[in-house]
Amino acid sequence: MAQGIETSRRFVNTWECDENSHLNVQFYYQYFEDAHVHFWCEAGWPVLKDLPVTQTHLARFHGELHEGDLTFIRSHLVATDDGFALCHLMYNAETENLSATCWCPLGDKNIAAKIPAAPVLDAPDLARPRSLDLAPIPTVGREAVTQAGFIQTYRGVIKPIDCDWQGTATTRSLIGFQSDAAGHFWSHVGLTQNWLETNNFGRVAMESRISKLTVIQPGTPLLIMTALVGYARKTLTFRHYIFDVASGTQVAVGEITGVAIDLEKRRVVEWPEEIVAIFKSTLSKSSTS
Asked: What is the pTM of this model?
C-alpha cells in the first residue's frame, strides 16, 4: 500500500503534557509544523527559504498521547477541488495507532507538477474535516465581536521565542495562546475548575483549526476574543478572534470543537442539563457572521 513520506520522529516529553496528563494541543501543531518543512525537503523542493505556505491548519485528535510515548508522522499531498492539500498523519510509534491528523490547504493547482517526487494519495476519511470546515471565516473588527457578545480570554505579547527563523509567529505559539484562552472560555460557560474536579473530568479539544491572516511579528500585543458558536450532546464549538491591539486589526482566527472526558475511564461524557442551559443562554447572546 502506498504511503506518505516520513516527516517526523518524536518523543512526548513531560513538559509537553497538560493538566489532563496528555500531549497539549500546541505541541501537536509544533510536530506538524516541523513535518511540513521535512516533507518539502524530502520531496525535493528546491529552495528551503521559499517553501509553500500554509495559512490554515485543521487538526483532528483521534487518540491520546502521554508522557514517554513515541510518535512518527507520514505526510502526503491530496488533490482537492481548489488544488492540493498537505495531509499529515501522526501515529503512536509503538502501537501504530493513529493519534492525530492535520489538513493544510495549499491552493496551488500546479504544486504537484513543480515537485513530482511528492506523493499524491487519497486521504483517509479520519483526516478530513468533520465538525469544522475550511471555508474562510469573515474578518471582523474588535468592536463588532464585542457587540456580538465575545469575551476577552487572552492578552499577551509576541516574543522572539514565539516566532520561526523568519521572525513570524508560529502556528504552535498561536495555538498555545488559544489553549490559554480556552480555559477562560470554558469557565465562562460553566465548565469551571471546581466542576471539573468535582466530577473528575477534563476538558479537551477534538478538532481544531487556525487561519493566519497576516505576518505576526515580535512585539505585537495580542488580544483574543472568544464565544460559543454551537453545541451538541457531547461537544461544543467556540471561535477565537485574534487581534493586534496596536493596529486594531484582526490577525488570525481559530475554532475548536471541545469535549469533557472522564479522567478515569478516558471517555467523552454527555453535558448535564444545567450546563446545556448555560450553553443555550450564552449562545443566544453571541453571534457574528
From this structure: 0.92
Residue 76: closest CA among 119, 32, 106: 119
Say which amino acid occupies 64: E
| Homologous superfamily, domain 1-128 | Hotdog Thioesterase (3.10.129.10)
Whether 33 and 171 have beta carbons less than 8 Å apart is answered as yes
Residue 113: pLDDT band with limits 50, 70, 90 = confident
Mean pLDDT value of segment 144-157: 95
Q: For the chain, what is the mean pLDDT?
A: 92
Place of cell 513538559: 15
Per-residue pLDDT, 128: 87
Scan for cell 478530513, then name that residue.
128
Query: Tell me, which fold does domain 131-289 have in CATH?
Result: Thiol Ester Dehydrase; Chain A (3.10.129)
* Beta carbons within 8 Å of 23's beta carbon, 6+ residues apart: 12, 16, 17, 64, 65, 66, 69
For residues 172 and 33, the answer to whether their CB atoms sit within 8 Å is yes
